[in-house]
Design a protein that fits this description.
Largest sheet: 6 strands, mixed
Number of strands: 9
Number of helices: 4
Order of helices and strands: EHEEEEHEHEHEE
Oligomer: single chain
Shape: globular
Radius of gyration: 17 Å
Helix content: 25-40%
């Protein structure tokens, strides 16, 4: 007979950092990409169990406002279902290119998390073309370089999921290296 004290079930907590592409291309063609990406984040945010300790932090590529409050480049914290309105009301003031810098910031943040499972999700419609927001170099990062950079961030501690759509670079997953990639083929 097993005593109740011997049975300990650990609750799994999730810490998710989403690097959200709010570059200029997201606003083209009647804001379709922007609307779809925001909707996808709202649905994803509604699926987390905040009462269990799950957390979502959105790292925008460019300065955003939420509810009229300027957040600058600061990540947007979603710690309860009430915070999902921050996503709904998010607006980008000056969208530009697709920098890699926010991916590094999100990864550094996840390294400090105590959650039992950590995910870095990159949601993009574009081709990464510079390392920082302030760098004027517009040379594109090739698919091979991007994949290598993302795999370098992936580990058993922090899994990396790349979600591309539109003109985003198509990448190949490497589950053995904790890197997962998916590109939507929807062009409408």
């Amino acid at each position: 007979q097993v005593e109740a004290a011997e049975i300990t079930k650990t609750k799994k907590t999730y810490e998710v950092a989403v690097v959200f592409d709010n570059s200029g291309s997201m606003y083209m063609d009647g804001n379709k990409a922007w609307c779809r990406a925001k909707y996808a984040m709202e649905i994803f945010a509604s699926m987390l169990n905040y009462e269990n300790g799950d957390k979502l932090k959105i790292f925008p590529m460019w300065e955003v406002t939420t509810d009229g409050t300027k957040n600058s480049y600061a990540p947007i914290d979603i710690t309860s279902s009430k915070d999902i309105d921050k996503i709904t009301n998010m607006y980008t003031e000056n969208p530009n290119n697709t920098p890699f810098e926010p991916i590094k910031e999100a990864h550094e943040y996840l390294k400090t998390s105590a959650a039992s499972e950590k995910w870095l999700i990159v949601l993009t419609d574009g081709i990464f073309n510079m390392e920082t927001r302030t760098q004027s170099n517009t040379q594109n990062i090739t698919a091979s370089e991007l994949r290598q950079k993302l795999i370098a961030l992936a580990s058993s501690e922090i899994k990396v999921q790349y979600l591309g759509f539109g003109k985003a670079t198509e990448l190949q997953s490497s589950a053995a290296k904790y890197f997962y990639a998916k590109k939507s083929t929807d062009t409408s």
